[in-house]
């Protein structure tokens, strides 16, 4: 960390900005003044109740400066916050990060961690220790050390990606010490969970660490929803005290559950005589536990296996080389009922069609990355750099299920449901009081139209932080990517109809960069301005999401995004508390939309203007805080064209949705978690999550209302080895909707629940 000797020659404009960014008292902290007055040394003792302080540096070696001096918005969710909030999944943990929303699954969008960051779909932008984690999944947290959320264009770091950002999961690895920790939890809604984390030295130069987890629970307030899962994650480290370190790790997790169906929207008609029968566009008003699925049909089974070899050699003089090889295989197999509202059944008949969304997918990936990291001085400028190359291969095989008998209403041979019950073979049910145990009888087979997608990528990158003097730094990054993907669907016959084979191929080369100028008014602060780009090629999702490869989009260029950001970061209160703020503007000028000729072209435009604030750390030895606020104004400036004529005689007119708000993008979102040690050994905590109105589609005619959710926690240290923790989630039992991106339904948030956890540490 560089410290400043004097600030008397700092440019006036930047000094003024620093003064506006923080109170004067905080502005002065950490900076030398003249004359120097020597004060008596004061020693502060006492152990904080917990530590919410973010690490000084990112776990990724692509960040060549401390987080304080990185000209980018980065939120680190530490292990203590994950533990105190009672999070047991990635989406649980990300609830503490404003600006992130979770999308609902749909026909083309799989059930899993469908994340939106700053309004942009970031489903394929999840990484484990810096390497892309492919495949649709619902990720656990039992083997994670922390979670890093990088906001803004992510392509300079991860290659093909969204304009919103990415999430990096930092794994637990073997350490040079002996310890054993674990937890056992019981709670409402049949909640049971146990974890263990054991680390042992193997001689003087190696160590073994083992993390295991078993979990089961129903969803509070949704009686038919629930499931179980288990996982194991061993790691072995060699060369802990030498110049060459080797980490071998393996991760396995599998789950079995009944997936949720959510509640349909009550606004299916956009024109015609039935528009007057529409509701206001919110989810239907029925009891929280209303479930439109079928218990003997709906299921979801997942499995993840990931093996990693991580080798690092330290050459000395600040230079090191690292090579990581990873193989992963994930599967996502499900049938779940979508309460389809698109046919007008709700408004016309008070019924719901039980649409069966199905998927059977296996995704395999092989990645290798090599990076050289170091420091050097040239012409009086200090350079901290990382340069590397990456290779990746992903293969996805995806299928769907056929049912006998089918899932249509046999009385109409369509999706319309004038009646419900046995005469519809229970494919139609009532809007109010549906019976999830209806005796739906069927046989299930895989459809013959299996889809295979193979993606290969090559990348080269370099990052450098140049320190001109203790006050001025320049961070730059450049990355080149080659992305090739092919889609194959063999010819098949279904119900006597022959379908020709499908083939599509995309071949994209793109370069992305970022640059950020950092001014440090004091050693404990920074002010920055940055610019970055991002590229999203066709088939970005590797065949397992919304951004699929097809003949329609195969020849299109990658969507390019640009982001401008002005921000400031401060470490105050003896550098125990981190504060950050940023304003930003993101532009996509070549979004894929329908063109005037009815084809798909890169002619659309999207913009996001935003502001965010973050806080993390210790206010006092007894008081910790973690949270933030994000304001987003995401607009579809040009959504292309729509057909206002007929299929036979199309008339392409400018989209009526121009100027609408991004789906799954709340204008305001905020979170706060705080904990206070009221007595020795006794800590109480609480938090809130606020999300404003969220639209479910680009039409902006279906939406989930704003909500505020409150949580509470209390923990007590019985002795140095045992502690107890009580969590109450959704304290007021608020009915809210936490997954919105499908135009058909909204995901229902969990009701009030309580869990008691016994933690062990030896």
From TrEMBL:
Record PROSITE patterns: TONB_DEPENDENT_REC_3
One GO MF term: signaling receptor activity
Residue ranges of domain TonB-dependent receptor-like beta-barrel in the record: 262-731
SUPFAM superfamilies reported in the protein's UniProt record: Porins
Residue ranges constituting the TonB-dependent receptor plug domain according to the UniProt record: 67-165
Subcellular location: Cell outer membrane
InterPro entries found in the cross-reference section: Beta-barrel_TonB (IPR000531), Beta-barrel_TonB_sf (IPR036942), Plug_dom (IPR012910), Plug_dom_sf (IPR037066), TonB-dep_rcpt-like (IPR039426), TonB_sidphr_rcpt (IPR010105)
Membrane topology listed for this record: Multi-pass membrane protein
Entry keyword set: Cell outer membrane, Ion transport, Iron, Iron transport, Membrane, Receptor, Signal, TonB box, Transmembrane, Transmembrane beta strand, Transport
Annotated signal peptide: 1-27
Single Gene Ontology BP annotation: siderophore transport
Domain of life: Bacteria
Pfam families linked to this entry: Plug, TonB_dep_Rec_b-barrel
Database matches in NCBIfam families: TonB-siderophor
Protein family membership: Belongs to the TonB-dependent receptor family.
Protein name: Catecholate siderophore receptor
């Amino acid at each position: 960390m560089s410290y400043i000797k004097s600030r008397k020659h700092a440019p006036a404009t930047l000094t003024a900005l620093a003064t506006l960014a923080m109170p004067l008292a905080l502005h002065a902290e950490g900076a030398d003044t003249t004359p120097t007055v020597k004060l008596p040394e004061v020693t502060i003792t006492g152990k904080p109740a917990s530590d919410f302080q973010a690490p000084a540096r990112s776990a990724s070696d692509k960040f060549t400066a401390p987080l304080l001096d990185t000209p980018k918005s980065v939120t680190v969710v530490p292990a203590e916050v994950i533990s105190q909030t009672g999070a047991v999944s990635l989406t649980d943990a990300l609830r503490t990060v404003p600006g992130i929303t979770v999308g609902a699954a749909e026909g083309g969008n799989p059930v899993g961690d469908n994340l939106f960051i700053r309004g942009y779909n970031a489903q394929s932008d999840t990484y484990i220790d810096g390497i892309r984690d492919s495949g649709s999944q619902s990720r656990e947290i039992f083997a994670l050390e922390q979670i890093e959320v990088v906001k803004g264009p992510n392509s300079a770091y991860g290659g093909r990606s969204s304009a919103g950002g990415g999430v990096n999961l930092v794994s637990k690895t073997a350490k040079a010490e002996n310890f054993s920790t674990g937890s056992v939890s019981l709670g409402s809604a049949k909640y049971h969970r146990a974890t263990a984390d054991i680390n042992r030295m193997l001689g003087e130069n190696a160590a073994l660490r083992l993390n295991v987890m078993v979990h089961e629970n129903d969803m509070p307030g949704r009686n038919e929803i629930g499931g179980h899962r288990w996982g194991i994650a061993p790691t072995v480290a060699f060369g802990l005290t030498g110049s060459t370190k080797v980490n071998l790790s393996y991760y396995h997790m599998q789950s079995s559950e009944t997936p949720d169906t959510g509640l349909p929207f009550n606004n299916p008609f956009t024109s015609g005589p039935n528009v007057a029968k529409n509701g206001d566009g919110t989810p239907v008003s029925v009891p929280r536990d209303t479930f439109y699925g079928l218990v003997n049909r709906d299921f979801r089974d997942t499995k993840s296996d990931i093996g990693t070899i991580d080798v690092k050699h330290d050459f000395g003089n600040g230079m090191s080389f690292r090579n990581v090889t990873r193989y992963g295989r994930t599967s996502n197999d499900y049938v779940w009922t979508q309460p389809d509202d698109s046919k007008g059944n709700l408004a016309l008949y008070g019924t719901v069609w039980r649409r069966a969304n199905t998927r059977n997918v296996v995704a395999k990936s092989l990645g290798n990355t090599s990076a050289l990291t170091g420091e050097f001085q040239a012409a009086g400028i200090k350079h901290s750099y990382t340069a590397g190359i990456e290779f990746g291969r992903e293969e996805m095989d995806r299928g769907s299920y056929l049912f006998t008998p089918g899932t249509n209403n046999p009385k109409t041979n369509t999706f319309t449901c004038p009646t419900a019950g046995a005469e519809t073979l229970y494919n139609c049910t009532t809007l109010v009081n549906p019976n999830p145990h209806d005796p739906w009888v069927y046989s299930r087979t895989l459809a013959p139209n299996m889809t295979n997608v193979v993606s290969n990528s090559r990348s080269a990158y370099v990052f450098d932080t140049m320190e001109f003097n203790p006050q001025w730094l320049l961070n730059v990054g450049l990355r080149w990517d080659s992305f090739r993907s092919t889609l194959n669907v063999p010819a098949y016959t279904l119900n006597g109809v022959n379908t020709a084979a499908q083939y599509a191929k995309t071949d994209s080369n793109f370069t992305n960069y970022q640059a950020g100028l950092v001014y440090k008014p004091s050693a404990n602060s920074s002010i920055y301005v940055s610019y970055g780009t991002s590229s999203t090629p066709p088939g970005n999702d590797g065949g397992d999401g919304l951004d699929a490869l097809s003949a329609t989009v195969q020849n299109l260029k990658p969507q390019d995004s640009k982001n401008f950001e002005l921000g400031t970061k401060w470490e105050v209160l003896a550098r125990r508390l981190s504060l950050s703020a940023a304003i930003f503007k993101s532009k996509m000028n070549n979004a894929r939309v329908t063109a005037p000729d009815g084809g798909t072209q890169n002619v659309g435009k999207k913009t996001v203007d935003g502001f965010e604030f973050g806080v993390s750390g210790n206010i006092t030895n007894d008081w910790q805080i973690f949270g933030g606020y994000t304001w987003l104004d995401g607009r579809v400036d040009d959504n292309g064209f729509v057909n206002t004529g007929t299929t036979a005689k199309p008339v392409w007119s400018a989209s009526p949705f121009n100027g609408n708000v991004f789906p799954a993008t709340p204008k305001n979102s905020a979170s706060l978690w705080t904990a206070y040690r009221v007595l020795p050994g006794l800590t109480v905590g609480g938090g809130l999550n606020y999300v404003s109105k969220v639209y479910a589609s680009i039409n902006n005619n279906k939406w989930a209302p704003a909500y505020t959710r409150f949580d509470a926690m209390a923990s007590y240290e019985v002795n140095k080895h045992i502690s107890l923790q009580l969590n109450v989630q959704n304290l007021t039992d608020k009915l809210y909707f936490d997954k919105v991106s499908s135009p058909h339904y909204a995901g229902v948030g969990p009701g009030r629940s309580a869990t008691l956890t016994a933690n062990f540490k030896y």
